[in-house]
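Take a protein:
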Amino acid sequence: MNKVEWLTAQLEKATTEREQLTAELEYERQRQTELRPYLVPRIRRGIIGNSRYAVRLRQQIKEAAQSSESVLIFGEPGLEKDNIASLIHHGSPQRREPMIQLTCALLQTSGAELFGRANGKPGLLAWVGQGTVVLNNIQDLPPELRPQIVQLLNTKTYSPVSRDRESPPAPQSCAARIILISERKAPEFVQCTAQQLKIPPLRVRKTDLRALLDYNLNLYCRSRDIAKPTISPEAVRRLQAYDFPNNLRELTALVKRAVTQGDQASELTEELFWSKDSKKTRFRLNLLKTYPQLRQFLQSKFWPEGLNYGITTWVFALVVILLFIGPQTRDQNFALNLFWAWWWPLILLAFPFVGRLWCAVCPFMIYGELTQKLSLKLWPRELKPWPRQAAERWGGWFLFGLFALIFLWEELWHLQNTAYLSSCLLLLITAGAVIFSLLFERRFWCRYLCPIGGMNGLFAKLSMTELRAQTGICSAECTTYQCYKGGPAKGEGQETDGCPLYSHPAQLQDNRDCVLCMTCLKACPHRSVAVNLRPPGIELWTTHTPQAYEVALLFLLLGGVFMRRLPAVVQQWDLPLDLAAFGPHLGGAVLALG
């Protein structure tokens, strides 16, 4: 061979190799184009936790990854079963091959996109090669495709789609691994798959909950570039008591909402977490939907600000003055008679109908709020955050003790028939509201320490009305939590300072911590807040969680009945007790209350 022939041969060889390389690059480009809408790029997370369920699941994934056989993954919604499929693929020898995922409900009934067409466009099974094909929600697969998928699993062959008059094409072999995902076991596919993985729901993996919370918290805080808060033990216990019907997906959403609502708090408390509870929605009628005029009234400036600052403030001041300077007996002092003969009975009669409504127009806290606002203007400062843990533990017992002292004061000094002492009682409670409003933000006194508020919150549980929020709307649409934190007007919502009791309407388990001020109703732009008509006291057998101090307060109030009738009790039982003397009277009153 001369030199010219040799050069010609080399040139032809180079040309052939270039054409071959060009064809391969074009094929790969077209392959990526066809697969791109379905590609699963990476693993989202591993299996978090060290429970026996987590350990066993990790072992099952490892075993499935060593084989190229088909796998059925099934379990409840929200378990991230597609991520399990990713773990299997990326742990296998074919990890460098593409992995695609298809939603079965969206597949063509002909199967053309999966199997391709005879003498036409190849299907995804051909393009994926030795990669992995994930068929998500196999229970939604069109019935027309089920026999072909069974054939694919059993024989690893498939037939491209042909026209009606064309002869059936020869079956083609499939080199891809098939992974099925289902929300139930899917018996017709169990026999066709080499391995089945049942993913345990989150409710049986409660020992993994702390690790999952920590992982989600780390991930979300890192994505937002904020400091990671801690989660209070009470919050963890509340979450551990919840069943998580939407499993891991719901847990992730709860953590994100808690961090956002916490507004960079150093600790996430149980009040920042809430979850769907069907018991909250049983036997309820939303009065705001039934009577639109009621919504307009409750969202108006009159309720309760106009009423409080236009009427209640001045009436209360007038009553206190009349009690001091007017006649000192009930038969001569209108204000004293109004306080003991009308106000107290009307409050008690109102509990079964409107719960803690009185607290929305309570003059004690109106003066507390006025003092708080005035002091912040004269002395700008940051008010202290609530010591929630101490308040939750001891606040109820504080108001119990204060109520007991007020009972004894009323009995021993005859406040019901002594006007100036009754005025002192009103001023004492007002002083508590003012002092704690100067120290802490919002209405700390109302929520934890006020003796009247404690009694109101207790009896409000018997009410036939309640204020709640629709948890689904709050979870899906709300990102600002203006009802809780306050903020500028958004949508049809109004500008507010947030709930004065730091209660989120979607988290309320009973009526104790809601004063029906309607701040949340005014702030919400999504119409999530509802004022419901319900069977009286329904929460006592549904969502109620009893507190020890509430039981003690109930017995104290019952003892108050006997204390009021102490002279009759002494006379009927012929007890050697001289109620005219202070010491025996005090002893008898304490025994009656106890």
Observations:
- Residues 3-35 form the longest helix (33 residues).
- The longest strand covers residues 177-182.
- The chain has five domains: 3-32, 39-200, 203-275, 284-479+506-545, 548-593.
